[in-house]
Design brief:
The protein is α+β, with helices and mostly antiparallel strands. The chain is globular and about 95 Å long.
Length: 526
Amino acid sequence: MSTVYDEIYWIPEHVRSYLTNLGYHLPLDAMEPHIRAWDDWMASRGDFYDYDDTDSFGRRYRVHRRSIKPAMRVCREWGTLLLNERTVVATEDQTCTDWLSDFYKRTGFMRSAQASTVKAFGLGTGAWALWLDMEKRAVRVRHYDARMVVPLTWDEDGVTECAFVTRAFYRGKAIDQLQLHLRGELCGDDDFWAVDDVCPTFPVVMPNGREGGNRAANAFSEERGNRAVNEVWEPNAAVNEVSESATYKIITVCFDEHGVEIEPEGVAKCFDTNMKIPTFALVKPAIANTRVDMSPYGQSVFADAVDAIQAVDLTFDALINEVDLAKMRVFLSDVMFDREKDGKRSVPIPFGKTDCTVFRKVASTDDIIQQFAPPLRTSEQTEAFRVALQMLGDLCGFGLTYFDFDATGYVKTATEVASDNSALLRNIRAHENALEQSLATISHAVLEAARRFGETLPDEGEVTVKFDDSIVQDVAAEKQQDMAEVGVVMQPWEYRAKWYGEDEATAQARARDLGPISTRDVRLNT
């Protein structure tokens, strides 16, 4: 019996109809066939992997093609290369940098961000969005992939309004939760709670099914007016009509399994964040979308490498079949088999082998034991497999040598091939630039929301990201080289600012506190 846990989640039709009735044109409709296809390749699903074949007698049988899941491997490699726990998000103020570092560590953001980046590079688009718990006055970041993201307002500069659709669980039942992050005057002054109100407001339904906030949902409609719950808000007539002072609102609408709108307790339907900056950030690979023109969605990092993915799995499956079919066969004469009575017949007792390696020569006494071992062609199969991997790596931005075999037969690491793989380094920089913008956007939003909740944080200024490139380059050697230049062309505080993400004032103060340190001591520490 199928359950909601077995299904692959896609935005249901009643949510699409709700958005369409609000007057929005959904760009997901044009991109969804491509996103579904990319999702199948990541999971090695579809007719390429499971198909019907016919034998010489006309009998049909089901065939499964073996796979190393090359599409998922490509996405995981990019996620590992770009994000990990040592990625540092730094601001111009050290207080904000330290607070962000603690926040990301405490909430496990980087670990989850790496997983969402893997999905974003596979499906072409992902997103991070604010989630506010007004009872605890806490801010969190939720992660979404392309199946759950519906851009609403966009231009060549990016997406300014977006909807996110997820499955939540309320009182043990699955519901669809739609959240719209919209900018502009959508509700009257009395139609929503604001984050600065004295009276507590309510968060959205938590994905784990717990009810957030207090249980005064009915008081919400009574105290603020019945239209605050029942009214349907119309979107802005035009983007140009949004004033410069417009703030982002988070509108939450929930539907039961029948598509009927419901109002779970502890959920604010319209919530004003009082923030002028975006409350979400889209994550996309640095690849132009050539599937749908002018779409706000990105393109999968392996979209142009589907044929290479097929070649990899074809050669891998052929290699396994070669070994399987070339197993030694042993033919035994009838005299080698014991016999038993089956009714009136005398039948040989089989050896118990079920893998078709031992055969009986009927009515034969010559050559009691005869062996047959067909020659293996693993060298040719391996070479074809190697070429397919090279093409996959090149088409997905890693260069020809990233997935190549070394002398021991294992795939080389990025550090081993980085010295002669300029394509990999160029593409890493391009993806890092795109990812830095997304990390900076959500970091600004997190800091601003924290201030609204009472955190005493100064203006963070510009947000930059220090990526951990030790996977593709020798960071220890670079740090040692910079240390050798301290006191020559680099000041000690400049070294700290470069490698530890500290602002100028903090780096200077900490460098003075440490006092004179020999090059040898620093080299040992690094």
